[in-house]
Recover the amino acids of this structure.
């Protein structure tokens, strides 16, 4: 745990990436697995994660990311996209996955399936969209923590135009909405931000025991 805290102090939202450095395939697979294993309400994972490697597409995305160079200079770009409308199929597929993974009968999971459908399916779409979007933040947290453990830099970003991302990546057609963007790679030696002392609230200000 001491190393974990040390690495959390090491990480920061990188402003300038070294475009000459790339993440190894092995480390990239570790980052993907960390995202896959992330906590999620009900375990449903109502989102998809797109790994954008195509340079031309990333140039297009940069235009709608306030021109931030992290989009194109980082080794890889993760785009988290949430389902805007939870459908019966999402839950049915999840239930089938549980049954297959744990060698259970689908019928044995009917109560769990009914519970999820009762809680989610009839919610107004804006509330569903808000809920599924929150789930992507949980997955992003795992990505940031795993990256720090590997001494890989990562920058969580909300500074982009989701509608344009949806258009460029064809997310609308999939019932998805771009909610978060995370470039990952290695900090440039010229990035002044890496030298700043991390600023956070003190424990006394942040926590209160009741």
């Amino acid at each position: 745990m001491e190393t974990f805290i040390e690495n959390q102090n090491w990480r920061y939202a990188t402003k300038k990436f070294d475009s000459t450095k790339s993440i190894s395939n092995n480390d990239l697979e570790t980052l993907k697995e960390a995202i896959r294993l992330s906590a999620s309400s009900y375990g449903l994972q109502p989102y998809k994660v797109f790994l954008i490697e195509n340079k031309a597409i990333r140039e297009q995305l940069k235009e709608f990311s306030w021109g931030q160079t992290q989009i194109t200079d980082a080794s890889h770009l993760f785009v988290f996209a949430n389902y805007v409308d939870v459908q019966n199929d999402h839950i049915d597929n999840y239930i089938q996955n549980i049954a297959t993974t744990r060698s259970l009968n689908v019928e044995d999971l009917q109560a769990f399936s009914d519970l999820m459908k009762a809680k989610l399916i009839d919610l107004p779409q804006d509330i569903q969209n808000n809920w599924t979007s929150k789930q992507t933040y949980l997955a992003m947290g795992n990505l940031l923590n795993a990256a720090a453990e590997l001494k890989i830099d990562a920058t969580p970003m909300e500074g982009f135009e989701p509608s344009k991302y949806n258009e460029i990546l064809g997310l609308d057609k999939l019932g998805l909405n771009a909610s978060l963007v995370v470039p990952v790679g290695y900090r440039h030696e010229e990035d002044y931000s890496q030298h700043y002392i991390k600023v956070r609230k003190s424990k006394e200000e942040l926590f209160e025991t009741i």
The first helix runs from residue 2 to 10. The chain has a mean pLDDT of 97.
